[in-house]
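#onboarding

Welcome to the new folks! Below is a worked example of what a typical request in this channel looks like: someone posts a single protein sequence, and someone else replies with the predicted structure as tokens. Don't worry about understanding the tokens yet, we'll cover that in week two.

Example request:
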Amino acid sequence: MTYTVESVRRDLRGIARKNAHVETLTRTRQYLLSQIALAKEMGKDAADLEKRLASALQSLQRLLAETAESEARYIVCVCALSPLHRTLILEHYVHGVALWKAGEKVGYSESQAKEHLRRALKELIEMLNKGTG
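Example response:
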């Protein structure tokens, strides 16, 4: 596979969506566990809640397996970037922070951040295409 700017942007945004989904499933798990404990404490049947919990856990396990497999290469390569480039990539693509705000966090204007982000993407694509990190 040859990585391009668009494919890397799409993949990074996909990582962000998966991370958000993992967070949602984790919160759902915590909520269901508390509801099951409460139902049992009150002497009520928690079978329906336990089924929902099992389903949420299966979804979470499946998503984590997919995420780990598809993101391992990106993690290695993003970690190999300079701290500035790594921060801009993670803030803008993974955390969804506006470019001007990501730039502000690292002490740059939006236009400077945009240029550094362009360089970071170029460097990331080169590493991904070479299979290095």
